[in-house]
Write a structure and sequence with these properties.
The complex is a heterotrimer of chains A (282), B (382) and C (202). Chain B is an alpha/beta fold and 382 residues long. Chain B contains 13 helices and 16 strands. The chains are: A alpha/beta (282), B alpha/beta (382), C alpha/beta (202).
Chain lengths: 282, 382, 202
Amino acid sequence: MAAITELIHDYLRHNKKFPHVLCAGCGHGIVLGALIRSIHSLGLSKDDVVLVAGIGCSGRVAVYVDFNTVHTCHGRALTVATGIKMANPKLKVIALMGDGDALAIGGNHFIHAARRNIGITALVLNNSIYGMTGGQASPASPTGSMSTTTPLGQLERSFDVVDLGLACGAGYVARATAMHALLLGKLLEEALTRPGFCLVEVRTPCPTQYGRKNGFKTAVEMYRWYKERAVKRERWDSLPEDQRAQSFPIGVFRDAPQPGLEERYYAACSRVQEKTSCQQSQ
Amino acid sequence: MASKKRSRKELFAQGNDAVVEGALLSGCTFYAGYPITPSTEIAEGMAARLPYVPDGVFIQMEDEIASLGAAIGASLAGRKAMTATSGPGFSLMQEHIGYACMVEAPLVIVNVMRGGPSTGLPTSPAQGDVQQARWGTHGDHSIIVLSASNVQECLEMTVTAFNFAEKYRTPVILLLDEVTAHTRERLVIPEAGEVEILSRVAPSMPPEWYVPYEDGLRGVPPMPAMGSGYRYHVTGLTHDRNGFPTSRPDEVQALISRQFRKIDQFFYDIQLTESYLCDDAEVAVVAYGCVARSARLAVDLAREQGVRAGLLHLKTLFPFPRPAVEAVLRTCPRVVVPEMNMGQISREVKRVNNGLAAVRTVNRIDGQIITPQEILKPLLRG
Amino acid sequence: MPAIPIDRFEIRLSGLGGQGILTLGRILGQALALEHGYHVAQTQSYGPEARGGASRADVVVSSRPISYPKPVNLDLLVALSQEACNLYYRDLKGEGLLLVDADLVPQPPTNRFCALPFTALAREKLGNAQAMNIVCLGALVHVLPMLSLKAVKATLPAVLPAKIVELNLKAVELGSTRARKRYPDIATQWTFFSPTTTASMP
């Protein structure tokens, strides 16, 4: 454990004032820890990693780590990340978003980033609620769940981030939870090494806003809930219908990466540039 | 001219084409945009040209919010970046204009003004976005807004816009109108080396000494390209000199006042106006964009009829070129401000007037350019 | 300097979207600006529809820099639809010239006009009705003494796609020849330097 802590300290910003903004029991720190370990084990240089975050609790995570970090406007992480990746394809660009961030205000950017297959690793930290603003319903809030803006219970359906990513054509789609930190680390390593748009959804508990409004007495209860409900995808597929409704699958849902847009764009440009210089030299 | 051998490249081109030429001349290598009339030719021109520019990137985004977001990302990654749009798209961009101001990302936004509000008149000119360009994004901020009135000027002002953006680390808005953007005229493309091209200052100290938002004499901190070893935090939150979020009143005050100062203290560099026959004028027109062309003819016609008229053509709209306007207000008893809106620059003129001159406005909001005759009337009538 | 000094000569080309009015305006403007060295401001106005709506291109030509880029009082109105003719005729100077497509403008609002069947010529002689705009341009070469056939021919390849240049070179010849035959003296009617612009303004 001590080695892991030391490792993580190596990636934190010594001049940034701690403590951080996250609540006790929040899963975001676990996700950040997994991300740091994956980046470390891949041997990526800090200078080459760009962490672009949106707004919300997830958005605040970027400031603590010693990469190139960008804290964008609400929902716009993928737009800025797209610009960075197209401008400098050598950079490893990671977009860190919340569920409201990525699916509501940034929903259009999300589906188009996946469609155009830009080489970004997109992390959606899904806590099923708007935590920072005090617990309002998000597009990932389950039907029937309580929030300050759904006093009658959520009547709308929720997005399944993985299904959405698959439908939009992301080349790598995976899901883990904050309870499955080692699996998460493995998925992140895969996502960081695949070309094109890679999506990892992380179900992460918000005990302060979601938990208290939805009958979870402690944070531990929420982690326990994740542990019980999250089922390896391979096993989930073979579950009977009624048990499926009581659980959700984790693991890799698609691993069929395609060359990213930036790769294809620069290749197409060098083709036309070569052609022109050939014509000029003739 | 037909007989003379053409030494420089000449085109018969639209204002929008001239923007493309100006941007490429300035070293712009990144364009992100979304099609919208009447600015689309800029996107089309950049899409056709950038693939042939070394490392040139053109990307069509899903909307104008994303377009400016991508341009900001590219700017942070070290590129000279731009986007272009028109009314409705400009409204969508307001969020990211504020972000670009806050993170001090140099870039150029061209807004070809069309009739509004809302979808309005997509193929007709207007000048209704002038105050929006100044104040459209929320929060107090300083910004540079330029305009152009003919095709050659579109090229020149695009180059100026990039130079100001890079020099002052700020988004620069270039306001055109449908007439200026779609008028075709002879366009002379200067050769490389004929025009001054400025680029942002990169930090020269070792990365561990780098303080991202450190104040200096110019108030413009050096800006590294992302990935060059200078890792720092970029945020739309109010931040301290290290780039980290802060709500300490002294640090907030220091940040926002520096962002104002870095533009305001170079006021005389940024203020671009052109005075035509103003020296002895008894009545002067203050105009910008395509209306400045109508005004010039109106001034000529008034002079033919014995009225000493003059024109102050504003090329910089914001920061408002107060000294130049005040000079006219001081010497001309009457000032006429024609614009294709209900009075957006005239309110600035009136603000600095302080009873110096009688200010009259000529307003038109029907999607038609103000004619010379409409400006001539108040020039003659006294 | 260009051969003939001109003080604000104003041309309007008008018709329907899809007739190639904007292309016609662009070629005319480019030939006058780049080949002849005039100051030219070419503006256009069009509706939201690409086909079938009203369409017009305006060309202001002068030996001096042009301030106001739009026409004030037309010296020449080319109307390729009855609707455009009715709409813009009132913008024509008293001594201005109206040039129409003989078939598409069956009821010109005046007796003083020139008519040539541009569309019919393009369809019958060139086998392509779409070339009618360039047949019309050919007629303008004859009508406007400041515009040479050589300049127009040099401009066509710069503006049009390569595969239709050949056809359109023929179209220019055709329009020019027909106009010369039908209206041999028309080019002599112009006075290009009015003593004052003001007098003629509305």
